[in-house]
Amino acid sequence: MSRQKSVAELATATVGLMVVTLMVTIDMTIERMDAERLFSYRWHPHAVDASHDYSQEPTTLVEFTLEDVPEGTRLTIVESGFDRIPGERRATAFAREHEPTAIIDP
Which of the four CATH numbers 3.40.30.10, 3.30.530.20, 3.30.460.10, 3.30.1330.30 does domain 7-97 have? Predict the structure, then answer.
């Protein structure tokens, strides 16, 4: 039986797995974690075909940045590196990863 990892354990890890709603296991490498300010990881976007080996393809970098603003806290999410994704997958990966999955209304 696997257990949840604490934030401290994740901060020192270099590779992790993330399971999303579609029950797809996603390999990811944590790039950087600065408590209460920045979290970033690399992954293979829209790598959902279990019969395909994505390990030799380039990854994108996803960065979550928190910033204090007069109204509270601003969350900025940036994903870069789509220009390195193989052409036959690039458009689909970009479109799928940038569909809104949730709307947060304060």
Answer: 3.30.530.20
Euclidean distance between CA atoms 99 and 93, whole angstroms: 10
The domains of the chain are located at 7-97
pTM for the whole thing? Answer: 0.67
Instruction: Note the pLDDT tens digit of each residue in 40-54.
Output: 999 988 887 888 888
How far CA 80 is from CA of 9, 23, 60, 72, in Å, comes to 26, 24, 6, 26
49 sits in which H/E element: none
